[in-house]
Amino acid sequence: MSKLFQYVEHPRIAERRLHGPPTTNEVREKLHGTSKMAKFNGRVGLKITIVVGTMWCAYLFTLLALVSAPSAFSSGNSIIIIAWIAQTFLQLVLLPIIIVGQNIQAAAADARSQATYDDAAAVLEEAKQIQAHLEAQDQAIEKILASLTALPAS
Question: What pTM did the predictor assign?
Fold first, then answer.
């Protein structure tokens, strides 16, 4: 090993190597805890979100909302019509559609995060190669210096 430079690995590198990228379970545990009830609630919430966050659910909710539409419109009362649109149709139908969009955005964010993590790992490996190259250069420089100092003074 060269005497010119001593490489010291940053502690985050070992931590990254050990843990890898954050997972959904780790995030859930930080938010809700690790008790059996917290895990159960997380699983139930995730299942409901998966089911409700589909376009099929949006279509079903649209049909469900349309069941009460004739009665709301036949009332002729603008307050009832507006309430049906706002409280029944918009909330019931837009909820799953918004979840679908959020799921797509979350998947894209996850893919970007994984790509960033993979890029950081690649950069780290490249930096290790640079360190090895510099180490070889340091050793060559030390040999040159040793031979220059061994030359007789003129």
Answer: 0.62
